[in-house]
């Protein structure tokens, strides 16, 4: 994401809200969250969003595609518990 003229100001505001006892991990986490929220808001403003139904359809397609691929592997019987082995009965 390109830096905007007020990136430094936003970072300073974020730092000012932290307690004096904040660790480097706290600082990095807060800055990461702020950047992620800003990126998400930019996506919304640019129309780069999906509806709940679109996300469900994509997820369903991914799961079904993975199941089909797993069944096509020759000699491997899908297991109820994850793996599968060519030696399974």
Structure description:
It is built from three helices and no strands. The chain has helices at residues 7-17, 24-45, 52-72. α1 (7-17) crosses α2 (24-45). The longest helix has 22 residues, at 24-45. The mean pLDDT is 81.
Summarize the structure.
The chain is mainly alpha-helical. It has helices at residues 7-17, 24-45, 52-72. The longest helix is centred in the middle third of the chain and has 22 residues, at 24-45.
Strand content: under 5%
Distance between the termini: 53 Å
User: What is the helix/strand order?
Assistant: HHH
* Helix run count: 3
Please identify the structural class as seen in this structure: mainly alpha
Report on the biggest sheet. none
What is the number of E strands? 0
Characteristic terms for this protein:
single chain, 89 residues, mainly alpha, elongated
Summarize the SSE layout with pairings:
Elements: H1 7-17, H2 24-45, H3 52-72
Helix pairs in contact: 1-2
